[in-house]
# Entry
Amino acid sequence: MRCARRAAPAFFTTDALVGLIIVAALAAALAVAAGQQRRSVTRLSDSREAIHLADRAMVLLQTGRPVPAAAADERVDVEPLPDDAPGGQRWVRVTATVRARSFELVGLVPREAGQ
# Structure
């Protein structure tokens, strides 16, 4: 009659430990990826807000209205450009910055706008 061999208990312990190490490594990689994704979403949101802010400022200038003061973490700069423009208008560069993300638009506005 043959005796059934039992697996060594050390092998089972080592196998379980390796499995836990793999799970921990995967959890750490997932945490890093989630953090990077969160930062990317924030950057994209800031960029979209800067685009929206610049577009809003350009529309206000094109309709002859002044650009209102921006919030604390936002900034809008209007720079007249020296290029020739059709009668009664001028070229301007609108730069909007939201938390270190900026966007520029160049467009025609009435000569009196934004002064």
Q: What stands out?
A: The longest helix spans residues 9-62. The radius of gyration is 30 Å.
